[in-house]
Design brief:
With 87 residues, the chain is mainly α. The protein is built from four helices and no strands.
Length: 87
């Protein structure tokens, strides 16, 4: 019932959330081998997201690493926010 209300909303973001929930429910309703229902948990979603991120990072080719200097005097414990912002 709540999913239908979300999908019927005039707010686009709520419509998208409702569509995503309906999609997840449809996936969970499908049968897995052995007749058991496949349940998508927060943990499995996190693992899939993490695997996607690691894959993306492995494809990247970093060109350089830049260090941001906290102050022009290069003194420890002193931070000049304007200098950091300009860098």
């Amino acid at each position: 019932e709540a999913v239908g209300m979300l999908r019927a909303s005039s707010v686009i973001v709520l419509q998208e959330v409702g569509a995503k929930i309906a999609e997840d429910q449809a996936e969970a309703a499908g049968s897995a081998p052995g007749g058991r229902k496949k349940v998508k948990t927060v943990s499995s979603g996190f693992r899939a997201s993490l695997a996607s991120l690691v894959s993306l990072l492995n494809q990247a080719e970093p060109h350089f690493v830049r260090c941001v200097k906290p102050n022009a005097e290069k003194m420890p414990g002193h931070f000049t926010s304007r200098l950091v912002l300009e860098e």
